Predict the 3D structure of the following.
Amino acid sequence: MSLDKISHYPVMLEEVKSLIKKPNIIVDSTFGGGGYSKDFLKNFQNCKVIAFDRDKSSETRAEKLANINKSRFTFYNSKFSKIEKFIINDLHNVTHFVYDLGVSNYQLKNLDRGFSYQNNSELKMTMGINDIKATNLLNERDEKFLARIIKLFGDEKDAKKIARNIILFRKNKRIVSSDELKKIILKSKKKYQKKDPYAQTFQALRMVVNQELSEIFYSLKSLMENCSIGTTFIIVSFHSLEDKLVKNIFNFFGKSMNQSRYLPQIEKKINFKIFKKRPMVPKLSEIKLNPSSRSAKLRFIQKINNHKIFINKSDTKMEEFFNLEEKFYE
């Protein structure tokens, strides 16, 4: 299926553009269908755009943009956790980093990827530059591990039942297709469901296979610790775990917090300014045009100091998620 044949809507584009002031180099950390990059090149005439995407299929659209904007656009097929390595010579000239953390329409609708349960396909769930697929996770990990990731990453109350039925199913046959997994999930759930019975388990598997939270952490850690004063980070997330992680990282770098109310107040040095406590959300008009934008949340932050401040996984209060993602690849 061609990427060009699938509609792509850059979510909250107007809000994102309103936060871009005097751009020099904009890094589009999640190129996808190219909506952000194309608009940035059109509307910010004097800036350059450097784009990244782990999905090799994005190169087709990137090549078209590069042909039109030869001196202003560069694309790298890479995970965004590796951005600093590619832009090391330009890092201090970057004024804006933009992230859209959603799964692209192309990936969802491409049966070869196995992201969606709307059609029967092989359970790969790989965004690109992956060594392991969802089938490896389902067929090779023990019941306790499966139950934990489905519970934590999917917030699935029937995680233990689903994990148990996965183990029982694979005693007779390797789990390969989305339809097989759907049957297992349905068998594990109560007969009457108020909401989609499959979404949470599929989300959990996808996030672990692609190490989605670890990618966010390592990307923001390297870039926020080393970027120049004045650099702005603009991040659009689509579910609560992503938003929680982004919020916690932003608070670590940009919020002065006392460790205990019983101890003397010691002012913590901060490197970033948080302009809004609450995230921005899409306008109703955008939701009507693009219903998948409904869950989007936008947070942004700007560097104001260069203190030596370094974040660790434990500072995010989400260390167990990282450990589970990394354990899958051991």
Remarks:
- Residues 212-226 form the longest helix (15 residues).
- The beta strands are 25-28, 48-53, 73-77, 94-100, 232-237, 272-274, 297-303.
